Amino acid sequence: MLEIKDLSVQYEDSDFEALSSIDLHFQKGEFVCILGKSGAGKSTLIRCINGLQDPTSGTVYWKDQPLSSLSEEDLRKIRREMGMIFQHFNLIPRLTVLQNVLTGLFGYRSTYKNIIGLFNKEEINHAKKVIADVGLTDQMYRKVEKLSGGQKQRVGIARALLQHPKAFLGDEPVSSLDPGTASHIFRLIQKMHNRHQLLTIINVHDVNLAKRFATRIIALKNGKVIFDDHPDSFQDEEFHLTYYETAKQP
Ligand SMILES: Nc1ncnc2c1ncn2[C@@H]1O[C@H](COP(=O)(O)OP(=O)(O)OP(=O)(O)O)[C@@H](O)[C@H]1O
């Protein structure tokens, strides 16, 4: 479903590679958590996957199509299949939950229609359904600026779902939430992942969350993959190798 071949990224003003010769293959149904300390390259990888960052070399294939060969329009279509969930939610504070969720349809519509907010009944009913799916029916007409962080992230998930995604991509979607709320959000992502048979790839700093929810953990260090396996294999030694400079002392 998603293949990354020999991918490297070096930012213009940088003298090292943020990602270095990455080769990865992802199947539908996998729930992947990407671990790595700050600066390891996690966000850069997610941004390459959804075509927001051009690689310096190498290629990302989405359903066998190389992203680099696509027109802007085709790339936009593919991005709609990859529902993004952001750390800081990326919502419009003064709009209601329903209006924010409907912005998930912006990619499908003409600019004119976006601005005047013409959504047909079917679209509004679909938005209400995904809002119910994330447990926010009673907040539907509240402005999102009045919501808690966890509720805001539920709105973010509903907005991603409205696009009928084939994948969920999350760039630290629970980093600004308390541990209990973070766990609830992961459970919700997992429920939607299972219901819609998605490929889910999430950057996360909380190793326990990754071990509880992921079917596969990938650890990055200095732009390279240093671990790619089942969460049960990510033990103390792997933890140390990922987050510290040297392996754990016996
Ligand atoms: N736009 C940019 N221009 C230059 N260097 C960048 C840019 N974005 C990221 N970098 C550098 O690339 C490396 C990888 O950054 P990236 O944001 O992908 O790491 P990360 O693992 O997501 O970190 P964090 O957990 O702190 O978000 C870092 O050294 C970072 O400073």
TrEMBL record:
Pfam name, any one? ABC_tran
* CDD domains for this protein: ABC_PhnC_transporter
Q: Where is the ABC transporter domain?
A: 2-247
Gene Ontology MF, one: ABC-type phosphonate transporter activity
Which top-rank group of organisms is this from?
Bacteria
Membrane-spanning intervals of the chain: none
Q: What is this protein called?
A: Phosphonate transport system ATP-binding protein
Q: State the species of origin.
A: Salinibacillus kushneri
